[in-house]
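User: Run a structure prediction on this.
Assistant: Running it now.
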Amino acid sequence: MRRDRGPDDSAGQEPARDAMPAVDTRLLVREEGVKGYLGEFRRRLRSGELGSIPVVIAVIIIWTVFGSLNSTFLSAQNLSDLSQQIVGTGMIAVGIVFVLLLGEIDLSVGSVSGLCAAIFAVLNVLNGMNEWLALLLAVGGGAAVGLIQGFFFARVGVPAFVVTLAGNLAWNGLMLQVLGASGTVNIPSESIVAKLYSTVFSSPAAGYVTAAVGVGLFLASSLMDAGRRRAAGVPFRPVAEIVLRTVVLAAIAFTTAYILNQYQGLPLALLIFLILLVVLDFVLRRTTYGRQIFAVGGNIEGARRAGISVSMIRMTVFSIAGAMAAVGGIFLAGQIQSASQTSGGGNLLMNVIAAAVIGGTSLFGGRGSVWSALLGALVIGSIQSGMNIMGVSNAVQFMITGAVLLAAVVVDSLSRRSQKAAGRA
């Protein structure tokens, strides 16, 4: 028999006074100190949250092996050259990271990089256009190409694989058309593109000041973020943890500066690459737009229901990939001081995709970082540099690089499976 609820019924009453409030597990970890962090680290490993651990271990192993086989590999000159050589590939890989965060792929970035290098060379060298304007038009052309491909993917509904595969052919054909009958345009050594790649700050102070500024900005931003979180009543990193992270970063930054100063100094190309990484990392991690990219890549239907314009995110991400392909292509053109019919070809596409994946960005979307491009490019570049020093043939280099890429994808797949089993995917 149904009875109407009276004033003494439990419905509508406040929770019991002795009910325990929910406690964020991150607070418990930090309260336990070193023991808590070690336990959290083991839990993350068991649940497949590997982060950058595999690629850092890979770099250590690669450097140890090649360094033991030939001392030239770890020389200041080779490491300095390596820091410049990875910039072009790394720039393009950054754009691939953005696309992979959506769970998609862009197969056109190699052709786009060659096309934009050709646009700059023809406008500036053959037609006498102001080099800065030609540079701006080349990068803008890359962004426009990415936007066009994003439109067909996001608005028309053509799969990204098909759109970018068609783009790979079409943009390569347009590059050949732009270059004309000669097929090659040499870029003068005094050109801005050549200088962007070859300029080195020889003063030791440049490297150390850059390291100090980078570490100082990291410390300041970490403290400010902790302060905002404390004021909002949400978990925040304690000062001891921030100091430890800063010390580790300082050790890496100043060691790098010291090694570079043992040869010629700080390369401008590397400095520009690092600045772009910091800016784009801020965009991904600290802005609404960046969080929307992760949301679309992690759960597209959930993102749509949350009011996110999925088509806008997709189009702009492909535009960013096109712009970064243009920047990378320009640095590659500056490296060889020419734009030719082979620009953007060869194994460039495979290397940039491999760099993004090896660096830790998931092929399944929703997980990754722009720093993956740096780490992955460092792995690829180190393998190629070491094998070149050892006189290993290109055939063997391709096979080893392919094996490393497969290993990275296997680690990513196993990590995702472990996270699903742990209920964290």
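The radius of gyration is 25 Å.
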